[in-house]
Known about the structure:
Elements: E1 20-21, E2 26-30, E3 38-42, E4 48-49, E5 51-59, E6 66-72, E7 80-84, E8 89-94, E9 96-102, E10 111-118, E11 123-128, E12 131-132, E13 136-137, E14 144-145, E15 149-152, E16 171-179, H1 185-192, E17 203-204, E18 209-213, E19 217-220
Antiparallel strand pairs: 1-18, 2-16, 2-19, 3-15, 3-18, 4-14, 5-10, 5-16, 6-7, 6-15, 7-8, 8-9, 10-11, 11-12, 11-13, 16-17
Amino acid sequence: MNYFISIVFxxxxxxxxxxxxxxxxxxxxxxxxxxxxxxxxxxSPFTELTAFTVCLxxxxxxxxxxxxxxxxxxxxxxxxxxxxxxxxxxxxxxYSNIAEFSLPKMDALLRHICVTWESKEGLVTIWVNGKxxxxxIGRKGWVVKGSGQFILGQEQDSVGGGFDKRQSFVGExxxxxxxxxxxxxxxxxxxxxGCFSTGGNIINWGTxxxxxxxxxxxxxxxxxxx
Length: 226
């Protein structure tokens, strides 16, 4: 009597550049200056934003300007840009620079950065490690349009492209979330502590699909926050 045994092996392979879901517990490492290394985040669909909160953790030892967070549309390549300057300033662009904050310079230690804005009064606030800046005014009555592309690691000069290695990010980024509202102070403080369980409803680091290109390393971030 002959017996036939069928064995099925399941192999899961991640191909760089392919779409994958969620980066919970992961960090994205941009190890060198390039014009083609990026991570694209695929948001929940939205038509427009009249308010937002963008939060992320980042560390970099670069001594030049670079993009921390880039959102481009067919209307404006800087539809929503968070820009770091070598002098330690972080600026919010909504088409153009609307508010700039003087902060301690970035270094090798991960820091939690949140930027909030709302259209009604044009209030812009930045939070670093749970501490609030002064408030500034910019783009009162403005709206951020949907149907664009969110990119980490590069500044977009066109939707999804036009990258310049002299503006690229080198370092580590994790815990990127975007909400369509201004979070309350306690929520931002809790997010900084790693205890805010509700991720962004536009971009959620734990569930949002992403696509990488170029030289990008994705690793466990080994953060243990109690």
